[in-house]
Structure formats: C-alpha cells, structure tokens
UniProtKB/TrEMBL annotation, chains A, B:
Domain CoA-binding residue range list: 15-109
Keywords: ATP-binding, Ligase, Nucleotide-binding
Matches recorded under Gene3D superfamilies: NAD(P)-binding Rossmann-like Domain, Succinyl-CoA synthetase domains
Pfam assignment, any one: CoA_binding_2
Record protein name field: Acyl-CoA synthetase (NDP forming)
Organism per entry: Pyrodictium delaneyi
Matches recorded under InterPro entries: Acyl-CoA_Synth/Transferase (IPR051538), CoA-bd (IPR003781), Ligase_CoA_dom (IPR043938), NAD(P)-bd_dom_sf (IPR036291), Succ_CoA_lig_flav_dom (IPR032875), Succinyl-CoA_synth-like (IPR016102)
Length: 479, 479
C-alpha cells in the first residue's frame, strides 16, 4: 500500500469550512476535553454537529452517535478527543465514513517517545490510506471565527476569543497560542484562522501557508515556530507565499538555553538560529522577537501598504514623544527628514504659533483635532515622506474622540498615494478606547509607545524592500 | 543683592507636604488652567486652599482672595497660573507673604526665547531674593497622591491618576509625563511623587533626587530627561542617590534626529548620548529605552531585591514561553542553568509525569496551582539560582485565582533569601486582573511577555552589580 503524501496545501480547506463536524469522544463531563470542544463548537458553529460516544445518548442537548459510522450526512470533519490508544481505530472509522479532515487533540504520540512514535507512524498510515488530512496530534485545535469553527478545548470562562479579522496565526505551541489569542482579544485584534499544529504528523506550516495565501479572509500570516523537520519544504512554501502575502515568524529557541528548552517542550530540534535567519532573509519573512511583536507586525502588514522608501513624518501632540519616535526610527535605519521650506510654510499656516512645523511636527499639548488632521493632509500631499507616524494624546482637552473619523476622511482622500500610517498611543483605558476607533474607522494600527510603532514601520519597510527586490528580479528575468 | 542658590535639595519638601496652598490665577471658567488646578487640588487636598484672583469672589465654592497678601495662615505653597507678564509680580507677592515654594505653570519664558529669557532670569532673582524654591515655569505641575497634592491642570475626565505607590517620577516633558501617568493608572502602578520640572529655572533633577533619596514613600526613582545644562550637578546627585535608592533614566534625544527634535521641544541641548551613557554607567543609573521600560524597571527595583548573581530559574505553564524566556535571558547575559540531579529529583516528585523538571521547569498546561507553588519552593530552597521568572497561564483551567495568595505564602517563608521573583503574563483582561493580585499580595512585578520580564531581571542584575561594585570599593578604602 502506497502512502502518498498529498501535494502541499491539498485538502486543507475542510478544516476551516466544514460541511458537518463529528466530535469523537464527546463527553458529558464539564471540563473534559471532549466536553469543552463540543461546547465551543455548539456556541459558534451553524452547521450540523455530531457527538460520538458509545456510552452516551445525549450531550449538551445533542443526540449522540455510538460510532462515526452511524453519523448521517453531511460530515467531512472529525475532531478526535479519545485516549491515544483509541485514536487509530476512530480515525480509521472516520476515513471509512468519508471524512476528509481529522483534528486529533489527544496527546501521547511522538512527543512522549517510545511507543508514541510507533503510534504516530500508524496514525499517518491510516490517514494516508483514506486520503484524509490530519491536524495534530497533541494540539489545541483550530479556530476560524468567520465560519464558526471553534474546534478547541479552551475554557470559555477563562479564555478570550478574538473576533474575525485579517490575521492568520499558526502556532507550534498550543498553550502559548491560547494565551496569545486571549491577549489578542483584549487588544481588539481580529483573527482569520488559528491553527495549533501540534506534532505536525501530516498538516504542517507549508500546507497551511499554501491555503492561507489563497484565503481571501487572510491579509497577513503570523507563525510561532520552535523547530521544523523539513526545512526545504517550509522554505519553498515561504518563497511562494511572501510575494502574495506578508508572513511574520517568531522563531523560538534562538539561544542555546532556548534550544534546550524547545527540545524538552515539543521535541523539536531548534536548529541553528543563523540558518533560520538566512532562510527568513532569503524568502522575505519578517522576523519577530516576541508574540506581541509578531502581532504588531502582522497588524501593520494587514492594514497598511508596505513602505516604498525610508522617510517618515512624525506628527505629535507631545514633544517628548516626537523626540523618542525620532530616536527609535533613526536606530532602525529610517529617516525623519526636515521638511522643505514650502511644506514648513504650509504647516506653519495651519498650526499654533508655539507649534513646530519641522519634522517631527509638534502640534503641542494646546492643539485641537484640526491641527493633527491638517498636518496629516499637508504631509501626505508633500511627496516628501514614505510613511506617517501619528502620536495623538487623548488625555488632553483639545484632542477629541472625533479625531479617528476626521483622520479616516483625510486618509480616504489620499488612499491612492499608498503611504502607510501608524499611530502610537500612551495612556489609559479612555485613550485606548479612542485608539481602537483609529484602527476600526481609519485602518490605522495603533501601538502602545513610540518604540513599537517605529518597529511596525520597520516591518512595513522590510516587506516593502522585499517586494521591490523580487519585482526587480522579475524585471531582469523578463529582459 | 546676592542671588544665592540654595544647597541641593534644600526646601524642596514643601512641594510635597505643604501646610496650605494658594492658587494664584484661580479661574471660574471650566477648562482654564486656573480652574483645573484648583479643581484638582480641591478633589484631593485636605489642608487649607486659597484661590487668588482680584476679579472673583468665589470659585468652586471657595472664597477668593484678591491677592496672596490677603491670604491667612497657614500658606507655604503657591501655584501660579497667570499670564507670563503677571508672573513676576505675583511671585514677588508670594515671597513677601512668606510662601516657601512656588509652582509656575505659566508658559512664555526661556522656551520662547527673546524676552522670555529675560523674564525667566528676573523670575529667578525674585525667587532667590525671598529664599523660595520654584518648580517650572512652563510645567504641568506636581502630583503627590499620599499628601493630596494634585497641583496639575490635568483634565480629570480624560486623565487617569495613579494611586499612591513606591515609584517617584520626574519628567522634563509635561505632556509626556501626563500620558505616562494615565498609562500607569491603567496598569495599576502606584506613584509616590510626580514632578513636571518644566524649564528647571530653579528646582532641577538634582534637587529632587536629594529629596527623594530620603523620602520614605519612594523606593525607586524614574526620570525622563531630554537635556541637562549642569551635568556635573546631576552627576553628583546621581552618585549620592544610587547607593541608597535605584534610579532609572530614560534619556531621549539619543540619535541626531531625536536631538534635533529635543532642541525644538524643550530647547535642550541633548548632548552626546555617549556622554550620558558614560555618566549613567559611572553612577549606577539603570538606563531605559522607553517610558514603559522605565516603569518596568522602576517597578521591579521598587518591589524586589537586586540580583546578586546571573542564574535564573524559569517556572512556566507553557513550554513555548519557557523557550522564549530562555532566549531573552540568554541574550541579556543571564543564565538558565540546568538544575542539579538532586533538585531535578525533588521537582520530579511534585510534578506531573509529562512535566519537565529541568530549567525551565515546564509544569505543563495540565498543571494545577500546587505544581507552580511547590516548584517555586524547591527552586528557592535549592541555592542554585539568583532569581525566579514565573510564567503562569491564567487562561487555563488548572491555574486558579488563588495562585497569588499561595505564592505570597511561599515567598514570605523564604524572604530572608533575598531572591527576586518576577512574572510574565500573556493574556486578556481576566488574566491581568489575577496578575495584578500577584503584585498586590505577593509583591511580584508582572510583565506582559517574557521579553519585558527578562529585561526587568536584567535591571535588577545591573543594579545588583552596581551595589556589589561600590560595596567592593568601600571595602578597599576601609582596608
């Protein structure tokens, strides 16, 4: 029997747009994995849902089937939450039933060594035999809010779940993925697809990249990686993805101590970080150094065009923030050039006498909304910059909660210029509630502090440089 | 007439513990500076409050005095919110009335150049003549929550105000200071004293350091500096402060672009950052690179003892976080050593079979509170580490909101070991509400993400090294 591996990305869509879902190992006991996953699916999923358990009749008000073989149509996805020893049998049954995708949450496979390795090999054989795709084992599941798929065992009383949005997130660590989603929900960041890849016995990052680069809901892709066993496979997938969509990777295990920790955690050979760095550089990946930074970058890349040059205009209510922004941008190789005399004169006409029309434009703490709005307009019109960093202070009296809508209007007028705009906000809950509106109505990603906003611009510049570079290559090959 | 500058730090206490406060330029118009400052003082200050305004009889229910000369006892502090042209006269009257400290909020002095420079010189003459101390001009005021002094013109509907706490904060930028306080309130960080130093015509960072190092409410000092005109004065003050209390400095204007922005902002000569770096290194200052980092460091230094060695134990619920923490710590020159076989054996006895007893201790996502608590106990007892980084995941089911109290108990038992403990939390609102309790009941500073927690340990280690170094110097001079 030939165990043919499907082409990269083949058949992965079923995990995100299933016609019907069976939960094998559905449990009546609250807190158990087989209960939580059914509970979560039932809360969101609009399609038919089939709990499977030979020892139950009803769970959460749904009729239970003794075996997946008894489940009626349509069913093309099975979520498996039975002990490791029972997994092979139920996955084989799922294959016989015509299921196309299985998510195995159960642990006790390659990650435990010994018998677990054999068990995982047999699991792959069964999956291949039926031509199915498998996510896991030893994973926390799949979350796709727009299609109602919450095939995870998150505790809904403890775990925040982001709404639909433009960022796809692939995580090799389940618990970390969950914690990061909890943070993303609080931060107001939306997710297109989340996949905890677990042991990657079948579906891996390469498969998911192939799907995501064609996925209309995904505008940027964030990945947390500890180790990859098939480097060239990932490399090829990255090469084919970054010209279409930006990919941000957080590679853990950079240091010796980190690599050792990765080996105990996912059994990954973290590999030389230098090697990963080289691959990222050669494939146009934007590397991130922490989960927050990964999402900072993915958000900027999802909402804003890449930067086509190095020049940044800073428009700030607080002079000190302008100083810090200039420092951060300079240290990242971006420029904060003085404006031409003409642009300075135009700015001077709309600003307060105490304001500074150079760059940073310091509208001062006495400013009102219009000072920011008109400065933005003049700067976008000037042709002298490739990006804008806005620093409003929502704790001051002159800057109102109408500012986001006013800025959105100006950005809309100049959208054809494709000049990215990001913002930095320092402040408390009220400031952030207005800042969220900047993201929502104006599509301006907002960062806590100048350093993170500057880094986000750096990510936009790095990706912009990559696109310019591969465009150049294509020109040359055409010639 | 000799204009004698008072000894460093002399007479500064009045700004934080006044017997009675006059508000010169108190206004009946909501939104005006002279209204806001009176409003803010009235909301917090328990001592006598005297609005002064020749054209009003009553403001905010308080009787108004035509001149400070008419104000009854006790009054030793005056807050001045009149136009620049009127400042000299009212400050002179305050001096004649016996006031010991004046806070001049008004702008229009050195920062505007020309006439403003002359005006500021005359202001200093008047202050010296009466032997008063002056904060400002061109500042946002003073905030000392424990003594009810909110002599700022913050808008209470927009501006969050932190409660009392162990961190003093001196800011050269008013607006930035306000925004950072707004953030600190939301973050749950408490403040002992906040001073917006403005133009530093009289009281400067050196004066404030001299006061703060003897101030029992202050346990660490955070400073935002753009430029200093009297470097040797600041240097001496730092030298005398850091052996007693940790000082964290955020120096803006590191780059050319930043220095140029600082020159337009506060008229500061930012000076060579290399020079500042050298002074910080030679005086034991902990340098920070952003406002968030400044408070991250100040919080760790206020709540925890300095690190006396480089070895860190990581105790984590999520393996991925352990990998990232190891990376971050390693890159900062801190070590995550493997534990001795004895310690590993002790850990193995209390942990789940799937957990890792090496370092990082990975209690796994299936852990309950006791796995973290007992791991902490064993690690503190081991003598094998100089600090502990805890990474609880409050979004998982096993880790409860009782964990902070349980950890506090263990820390209390081993407090004589003087091993600092910090935590990293990734997650949403619920996770953070429990995390706050870690700070409150266990005194463990909590950071969003491993990178910032690792940097906080780096700050504790840097300060620990400094204390070891100067202790060494003292030993040598004794010998």
């Amino acid at each position: 029997m030939a165990l043919i591996r499907p082409p990269i990305g083949d058949g992965v869509e079923v995990f995100f747009r299933p016609q019907g879902i069976a939960v094998i190992g559905a449990s009546r006991v609250p807190g158990k994995v087989g209960y939580m996953v059914l509970y979560n699916l039932k809360s969101m999923y609009k399609g038919p849902l089939y709990p499977v358990n030979p020892r139950a009749r009803e769970v959460l008000g749904l009729p239970v089937y003794p075996s997946i073989l008894d489940v009626p149509d349509p069913v093309d996805l099975a979520v498996v939450a039975v002990p490791a020893q029972a997994v092979l049998r139920v996955v084989d049954e799922a294959g016989r039933r015509g299921v196309r995708g299985v998510i195995v949450l159960s642990a006790g496979f390659r990650e435990v060594g010994g018998e677990g390795i054999t068990l995982e090999k047999k699991l792959i054989e069964i999956v291949r035999k039926h031509g199915m795709r498998l996510i896991g084992p030893n994973c926390i599941g799949v979350y796709s809010p727009s299609t109602g798929v919450n095939a995870t065992f998150f505790d809904p009383n403890r775990q925040g779940l982001p709404g639909p949005g433009p960022i796809a997130f692939i995580s090799q660590s389940g618990a970390l993925g969950a914690a990061v989603l909890d943070w993303a929900e609080a931060r107001g960041i939306g997710i297109s697809r989340f996949v905890s890849v677990g042991n990657k016995a079948d579906v891996d990052e390469a498969d998911l990249l192939a799907f995501l680069r064609r996925d209309s809901e995904t505008r940027s892709i964030a990945m947390y990686i500890e180790g990859v066993s098939e480097g060239s496979r990932l490399r090829r997938a990255l090469e084919e993805t970054t010209p279409v969509k930006p990919v941000v990777v957080l590679k853990a295990g950079r240091s010796d101590a980190g690599a050792r920790a990765a080996a105990s955690h996912t059994g990954s050979l973290a590999g030389s970080y230098q090697l990963y760095q080289a691959v990222f550089r050669q494939t146009g990946v934007v590397p991130a150094r922490s989960p927050e930074e990964m999402f900072d970058f993915a958000l900027a890349l999802a909402l804003q065009p890449p930067m086509t040059g190095d020049r940044v205009a800073v428009i700030t209510v607080g002079g000190g923030s302008g100083v810090m922004a200039s420092d951060e941008l300079s240290e990242l190789g971006l420029h904060v050039p003085e404006f031409s005399p003409e642009t300075q004169a135009r700015l001077r006409r709309v600003l307060l006498p105490i304001a500074s029309p150079r760059n940073p434009v310091d509208v001062t703490g006495s400013a009102v909304d219009e000072h920011m709005v008109e400065s933005l307009r003049i700067v976008l019109e000037s042709g002298e910059v490739d990006a804008v960093l806005l620093i409003p202070y929502f704790n001051l009296s002159g800057i109102t909660d109408q500012l986001p809508d006013k800025l959105a209007k100006v950005l809309h007028e100049y959208s054809d210029r494709r000049i990215p705009v990001v913002a930095s906000v320092t402040g408390g809950a009220r400031a952030w509630s207005i800042a969220r509106r900047l993201e929502k109505v104006a599509g301006i990603p907002v960062y806590p502090g100048e350093a993170r906003a500057a880094r986000a611009l750096w990510a936009l510049r790095l990706y912009g440089r990559w696109l310019q570079y591969i465009g150049e290559i294509q020109e040359i090959s055409k010639a």
